[in-house]
């Protein structure tokens, strides 16, 4: 059974430069200070070139049983992920660059990304200063995404490592984009909606065909929610959205692939099979077949 991780943040030496550019000198100082107080600073300092990082990640994939990874690229860092993809397309069949419409003012950047190997686009509206995901000004981007056959992947909900200015965004912001008749897009919502699974399932009542979730991350938002545990979250989501609309992901990055996340999710799927809630075919879909079809990889 082929396993594809659709949510992996690609890091290399150029990520540091990208962060400096994205955060600005003041926030970067704060970020560095926070890093210095944790072990992560040495991991940052040990980062290698994009191709070398790609080689390290490939070894890690082999060790942890992951066949393919979609590389998510931070703002200003798409080139490094494209380089990794072009060097090892069989391991990294596509790239998902972050798009911040407050920074990437011209939607034509999407065509350039597509030509270099993008299969999706990541949105993180909780980090935006003024724009909202439901703003009309987002339409040209989404229309272009549709034309280029890319898949939007959105982080709504709570945010880890967020600054005080950030605010969780409700996935109901999808309203105009699900209702418009001149836009036909599927949306992948990361981390089961990071706290907003209820809203996702309620939207799916009418618009289920256009809504997908990824399973990535620790999903520890569950702790602050009425949902019992991750097994229940999987079960409920599969029942409401169908096994065709759930995509496996780890949300790993700086520390390479997260073994705890992989083991936990594989365990849950095995458990659900034993309970006859899902079949072997459902498991194969969630772990890779759905991603293959949706992203055309
Ligand atoms: Zn992530």
Task: Tell me the span between the first and last alpha carbons.
Answer: 16 Å
Global Rg:
18 Å
In CATH terms, what is the fold-level topology? TIM Barrel
Mean pLDDT: 94
Bound compounds: zinc ion
Q: Which percent range describes the beta-strand content? A: 5-15%
Shape: globular
The chain-level structural class is: alpha/beta
Order of helices and strands: EHHHEHEHEHEHEHEHEHH
CATH architecture: Alpha-Beta Barrel
Count of alpha and pi helical runs? 11
Please indicate the count of domains. 1
Give me the CATH superfamily: Metal-dependent hydrolases
Strand order, sheet with most strands = 4-5-6-7-8
The strand count comes to: 8
Query: What is the helical fraction, as a range of percent?
Result: 40-55%
Major β-sheet profile:
5 strands, parallel
Highest CATH level, the class: Alpha Beta
Low-pLDDT windows of residues: none
Chain-wise SSE layout:
Layout: E1 4-9, H1 13-36, H2 40-45, H3 50-64, E2 68-73, H4 78-87, E3 94-97, H5 109-116, E4 120-123, H6 139-147, E5 151-154, H7 175-179, E6 187-189, H8 197-207, E7 211-214, H9 230-241, E8 246-247, H10 259-274, H11 280-295
Parallel strand pairs: 1-2, 2-3, 4-5, 5-6, 6-7, 7-8
Helix pairs in contact: 3-4, 8-9, 9-10
The structure holds zinc ion.
